[in-house]
Input
Amino acid sequence: MAPSLRAKTNRNPRLPLCVMTSVDFAAAERRVAERRKARASELQSRDQARRSQQALKATDHLPYPLDTWSRRSIEAWDNIKGRTGTRPAFRVGQVDAELLDEELLELLKGQTGEALKYFGSHLRDEWSSEILLGLRMVMYKLSIWDHNASYGATLQNLRYSDARHLGPFPKPPTQWQKAWYGFFSVGGRYVWEKWNVWLLDQEGSYDAPTTRVRILSRLTSLASTAHSFAAFTSFLLFLLNGRYRTLLDRILRLRLISPSNHLSRQVSFEYLNRQLVAQMDFESVAKNNGDGQAE
Output
């Protein structure tokens, strides 16, 4: 039903009945959002001007090279510690969305392994990486590519948006952003896992590893350490301003936001309660089956 506002009673017949169509309602919402955006920009500019004045007063007595460097360092530190993050897409909901996605992947992996055991018990162990690759591809296609949100983000009422867009209304991510996201999060993870398995096989063989294998192993270790440090730094910045949840989101400028301005900021334990109840039911069924077989 199209949203419309209509007066309930018209006590004065000389006055026209107030009717607001869906187009007028959307235009009114757009004007309100633009005014809020302008007010937020004005407050941000005032805050930046105040910080610049404070930095200028603090470094005014320093000589020429040092005052410029100190002023820029103070401004950079103010921008880093600024807490103007994504609202109302709070940090707990974004982290919970990632945990829900990982839990769903583990559940699907377990169900797939149980189905493949009828074709051979070795398939689940030998083709574990390929099974995860196929599940990640299916989840990515049906969630992020089609609906701009993973299943965990959907449960948290969050959607991906293009952070490069500075308009009053969020813009969905482009096809290229989603394609690169799938390339690195699905294909890149699979290639990296296979690469590490190949290096372990080369180093754990009976023959001594060659010089090329040792160099490749050293470079892989350095790359893994650098990635871990960069991911840790990105997560610390996420805890400060709540903008980008992962390092890949920061590189691709993808932000999780809520499509609605009315979002409860309370931590929900509904998924955990369901998981506990399902686990208790499974243990009860397993116990009953064991007792029946014992009899």
In short: Residues 59 and 68 are 8 Å apart (CA to CA).
